[in-house]
Amino acid sequence: MFDVFDRVANRFYSVKERNDLLIGTNLSSIRILKEGNGITKTELLELLESKSAYYDGHVEGIVLKLSNYKNTDAKNKTSNRTIFKDRAKLVRADFLQQIEEQWTKQKFTKNQLQNYF
Hey, which of 58, 61, 84, 109 would disulfide with 91, CB 3.0 to 4.6 Å? Predict the structure, then answer.
């Protein structure tokens, strides 16, 4: 699983919230290459050289997700919660060059998912 969007709250789940949702299911999340605070341009370029988990070659790209930790106070009960803030995607130049037609101009193909719940 890549992302989970909460239509009621009108926001994406944080990585922690998404992973917590997957506990006890047969679904798995995408591979996390790095977690932590701050990343340099050199580190980003090195991550783009990572081997793909899905085929013999490099990753197509990487997704950066920014989350904040927020204290919520519900009637004087404080809890820490991870809140999704923003994301960006970096795609390898050689992957882009292999795309012949932009995805919005391609024939629509509906994904089929098995009901796991």
Answer: 61
Length of the chain, in residues = 117
pTM: predicted TM-score of the whole model, two decimal places:
0.61
Residue 75 vs residues 70, 80, 81: alpha-carbon distances, Å? 16, 14, 16
- Give the domain extent around 58: 5-100
Instruction: Give residue-wise pLDDT tens across range 5-57.
Output: 889 988 888 888 888 999 999 888 888 888 877 888 899 899 999 998 888 88
Q: What's the domain count of the chain?
A: 1
Model pLDDT for residues 80-90, shown as the tens digit of each residue = 667 777 888 88
Indicate whether 63 belongs to any domain: yes
Give the count of alpha carbons within 13 A of 54, CB side only. Answer: 6
DSSP secondary structure string, 35-92? Answer: -SS---HHHHHHHTTSBPSSSSSB-SEEEEEEEEEEEEEETTEEEEEEEEEEEEEEE-
Asked if residue 38 is part of any domain, the answer here is yes
Residue 112 lies in a domain: no
